[in-house]
RNA-binding protein Nova-2 (Myotis brandtii), 319 residues
Amino acid sequence: MGATDGDTEAQIKASFQGPLSDRKKGHSFPAPQIFGAEEGEYFLKVLIPSYAAGSIIGKGGQTIVQLQKETGATIKLSKSKDFYPGTTERVCLVQGTAEALNAVHSFIAEKVREIPQAMTKPEVVNILQPQTTMNPDRAKQAKLIVPNSTAGLIIGKGGATVKAVMEQSGAWVQLSQKPEGINLQERVVTVSGEPEQVHKAVSAIVQKVQEDPQSSSCLNISYANKLAAESAKELVEIAVPENLVGAILGKGGKTLVEYQELTGARIQISKKGEFLPGTRNRRVTITGSPAATQAAQYLISQRVTYEQGVRASNPQKVG
């Protein structure tokens, strides 16, 4: 029976060899397609409040087309109601020289400051209708999205860089915390202040974008797929006897890492001495897509069964 279980495990592994070999070659997560990137061009993501999107795009897209002609930048905007996670704001991706990025952002900031009066003065409406008012402070803010690597440069060692940016510009600069429940490799930078202060701070941030060789690592403007992927994840917990955990971990954790690479699931084992209530079993938590968690659960159960068979036939190996 042990040999059969071992063969089954080998077959499961073999069925995943394609994706694993691709992953080792670096093909499982294709690099983002950079649209017409040229030497000296960079990317900047900006959050656009819904009320400002129309004036930035213009009738029939005329305003945004003219803006691209004047600045030489390429501008992409997420679809209506395709918002950045946790907000009701659209994502604008700007590509161009540092000068073009600053020019486009200045235009966007101007439109963001133009809050429609209807949104600042609450009307008497039916209590069941959604409120159309908004925080007037948003008009004095710029919200940029940068990769984690760029965020690190903006913060600087011990926060020295962001402190210097605030002192030199007079603006307040704040970086968001890493979001819960979704795996994003970027942060939102909120810059608050008067127009000139915000402009100076954003220019300093664009400088950090230029300095970061990985600043073009997150070029998506839609997050719908990311949100759908996260919501489709499931969590499975199984119990593994304490004396068999080593078989799943493997030497130096190699087997556990291999199982995660093969299936795409995340596998976590409770710490030594942390058992399921009333047992000597450790908790193994598997997270991922239904297919990934099922495959990981199967590999682990087969490994446990195989190891139990080996130990039953060779009692001297126990312990």
Observations:
- The first strand starts at residue 42 and ends at 49.
- The domain at 42-114+137-223 is CATH 3.30.310.210 (TATA-Binding Protein).
- Residues 290-313 form the longest helix (24 residues).
- The CA atoms of residues 2 and 306 lie 5 Å apart.
